[in-house]
Specification:
This protein is α+β, with helices and mostly antiparallel strands. The chain contains nine helices and seven strands; from the N terminus they run H-E-E-E-H-H-E-E-E-E-H-H-H-H-H-H. The termini are far apart.
Length: about 220
């Protein structure tokens, strides 16, 4: 059922920065999804290999992640599991968001269903099993961008409750102490994404992109 749901949701989104999903079929009793082939590397393994992206490349990548996520949100699709492992860079350097398998069309999700995903890249409300909205993706976007520019996760905790406490206190390491070439505007935009109150986060991924240095507000 979730497999069919993934295809239904993913086929709605057509954008250069989102992996295209084509169809669902069956072979020898096993269901499969046919999708665009991405020849490249996921962001998690790239960051593990090189530490962090140079500031200019990080900015370019951040904008493309924002654009892909915005395309999904425009169709009412919440990703709910946005993390470096689900973002590919192909051989041409294009950014492609993968795996909308945990996505759900944007009506309220709560309780156990809300907690499906990867805890290290979840918003406080998602960790607590409260309502999950597009603003939860904005929080995950902030976590991904922090790692993109610094090579480090903003929060490291040994338990879910410790992670929630850190998030709600918003005790972030200054990004410039981890990477001295980070523009203050980048840090400001990311801190806004990581506000524990969903209402105070940027309204859309494109608003995040516009807040980055060199961005065009229009």
């Amino acid at each position: 059922e979730r497999f069919h749901g993934e295809v239904r949701v993913a086929r709605q989104v057509s954008h250069a920065n989102v992996c295209r999903v084509y169809d669902i079929g069956e072979a020898d009793g096993l269901p499969f999804i046919s999708m665009e082939y991405i020849d490249g590397e996921d962001l998690a393994s790239l960051l593990q290999r090189i530490g962090r992206l140079p500031s200019d490349k990080a900015l370019e990548t951040a904008r493309k992640v924002c654009a892909g996520l915005a395309a999904a949100h425009d169709k009412g699709v919440i990703h709910r599991d946005l993390k470096p492992h689900n973002i590919m860079l192909n051989k041409r350097g294009e950014v492609v968001i993968m795996d909308f398998g945990l996505a759900a069309v944007a009506h309220s999700l709560s309780g156990a269903e809300a907690r499906n995903g990867t805890p290290a890249y979840m918003s406080p409300e998602q960790l607590k099993g409260a309502e999950v909205t597009a603003k939860s993706d904005i929080y995950a976007l902030g976590l991904v961008l922090f790692e993109l520019f610094t090579g480090k996760r903003p929060y490291e905790a040994k338990s879910l409750q410790a992670l929630i406490d850190l998030q709600e206190a918003q005790q972030l390491t200054a990004m410039t102490s981890l990477a001295n070439d980070v523009d203050p505007l980048v840090e400001k935009a990311i801190r806004q994404c990581l506000d524990p109150d969903p209402a105070k986060r940027p309204h859309t991924p494109l608003a995040v992109s516009a807040a980055l240095p060199g961005g065009d507000p229009l």
